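queue> holo job accepted (adenosine-5'-diphosphate)
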Amino acid sequence: MATGSAKNGGAGQKKTSQNRNDARTLKRKRVKDDLSVLQSATDALDPKNPDLKKFTDLPLCEPTTAGLRDSHFEVLTDVQRAAIPLALKGHDILGAAKTGSGKTLAFIIPVLEKLYRAQWTEYDGLGALIISPTRELAVQIFEVLRKVGRKHQFSAGLVIGGKSLKEEAERLGRMNILVCTPGRMLQHLDQTAGFDVDNLQVLVLDEADRIMDMGFQSAVDALVEHLPKTRQTMLFSATQSKRVSDLARLSLKDPEYVSVHEAATSSTPTNLQQHYLVTPLTEKLDTLWGFLRANLKSKIIVFLSSGKQVRFVFESFKRMQPGIPLLHLHGRQKQMARMEITSRFTQAKYACLFATDVVARGVDFPAVDWVIQADCPEDADTYIHRVGRTARYESKGRAVLFLDPSEEKAFLERLEHKKVPIERINVKENKKKSITNELQNLCFQSPDLKYLGQKAFISYTRSIYLQRDKAVFKFMKLDLDAYAASLGLPGTPNVRFQKGEDIRRLKNASRAAISSGDESDSDGEGGKKKSKPEVRTKYDKMAERQNQDVLSSHYRKIIEEADSGDDDEQDFLSVKRVLNDDALDETAGADATTAATAKPKTIMLGNQELIIDSKRREKLLTSKKKLSKYMDKGTKLVFDDDGNAHPIYELQNENHFKQQGPAEALRREFVQTEADKVREADIEDKQLAQDRRREKRDRAKARERGEEAAAVAAQTGTQLEGCDADAEAALDFLRSLPVAGQNGSDDEDGPPKKRAKKWFEDASEDEAEALQKAKKRKSGKKVFEMGQEPDNLEDLEALAAGLLED
Ligand code: ADP
Ligand code: MG
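queue> job finished
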């Protein structure tokens, strides 16, 4: 290169380029020296050194140090002190530390250092991958990475979905560090061409136990398949599993266990006050409402068990105007809405956020005063993560757990086992106020709300039914009718778990079975359930009333015993673990017994044999539509002049075809005959057109004659007695003339009103099109297909608006 510039330029130029080269070499040397100093300092670092207190005590490169300084991070937290030195030395890490203790920096700093030390550039591709279980958490990790790493030269990206795959894919190839959710990342690894991860240096799993959980299992396993084995792996969580199988799945090599709070007396932050109160399911909303009204000047997160619960409580409380801004967040909202809500809650001073477990883990909302768990969490770990949304870092916080009497004992045991210190509090009697009446009114006035309430009811009862910990969640103890009434619902919605089985029947059956035994809690209650009230109540009447609104079909679907179709309402599966092993065994066993005892029936459909071995198949027999799938479709025939049937297309056999002569000659012959036919038809057409023109001309002449005759008659003022026949002909002719504006005959001279129809076009096609257009013009609105059920509120609203404005 030096010689190249000498050829082109003079002596001066030669000198500057020489200087530049010198400078570059010097810089390179300096960086190299810096790196070797860093490396030797890291090698000499004693991870157990008690004098490590500040970030400046660690061998970190200049850009990282600057980034930390600018973000005002100075003193190391426990987990950072324990994990960062080990990670810098290249160990695999399994880190556990309480919520809010600074785990994010404990992995972000090693990531930045690792790539810096490798002098990673944009040409080296993806160097680090950080996986988060939720989008919200991924966004937050990305923000921290951006803040602390902003003096670095690396490019970092966020892969969480919500945008088109293509849009993301375009930028992916250029990224050095990616923060992602497992599913989306896997999608890219599988589908994005040219996205190469062979160079990956570090893999981080934040909230690792959640990511290794059943819900993400297959995605994570498949994802790890793509990654190179020689890499550093770090796992962090407040509740860390040390399951050997998990570690093997990630191929961790002699991981260092960093568990800084293992010896602590509690597994939750020390500056967190934790309480529980016992409130029956039927009074839960009253208690929650009372709590909100008493804490208007606070920042509160209320955890509920499903998105449907969240929507109902949010919508109904919003209408009741508690006097504190309300927000809601769940996984089925659109990405933009989720981001917007998170940022609004982050900035809010006083607000109440109703949320599902999408924000139970990792999310760092500043200054949250209260975490309310209105629905009992599925396990103690979830409890620990939920309460961890408050009392973060060094701030204080309070948490209240609502428990139904049936949940109290077992769940408190679970908490104790996990070292969670919690105390009971009671709701003051004078503060108790029932909001059932208000809810009833709201549901009565607004079918939308009632619909949400029904959905909430169904999702809650189902989730209880499906919970894994049967000692805590006792489905049989739920008073469903009273619970439905407490939501303000007219009547108790039917919930089916398996096909054809409704919850009440299921429940009553087992109650009947239990009643002989000693079920202390169900005394009195069971009897009340079984005898159906003779008198029809207000609720019954309301339930029978047929809705007149757009939601009526949904409403009826829930209220009535639907008589056909499978219940494909699977979205309640937001419960993390759907069936426990016992339940699976049970169903498997049941299948096995039915298979063994009942001999499957078979019937013939057309020439196909259909085996009736399940209820689903039996039901199928009642539906003609569904059966048609199995039936012989039949073939179309044409009949010749003798009345013999032939298939529409009859294929000759090949030999027969060959006997007729060479294919090319046949083709030419065929073309020739067809061309002749066309020519003949053309001659006829021309003749026809000529005739028409002549006829027209004749008519025009006759008209002229008629007019002249009429003019003569007018002039003479006499009755044309002698020429009756002529007059009659003229009148006839006049009658045959087109009326103005009416296009009676084919007018060849006027502008064509319509494109001439081609021989292959069907008249009805045009008509249908015109009709469609006319319809569109008339309504001028978006056409909604009613076949599909709208599945979110926006769609419902749009649907309602579209129909009502007509
Ligand atoms: P975790 O992941 O353990 O739940 P985070 O990493 O989200 O905790 O950190 C919790 C809060 O503590 C964040 O707001 C973060 O800014 C703050 N934090 C973390 N490390 C430090 C530190 N060394 N000094 C001051 N604040 C810190
Ligand atoms: Mg975290």
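queue> The domain at 272-437 is CATH 3.40.50.300 (Rossmann fold).
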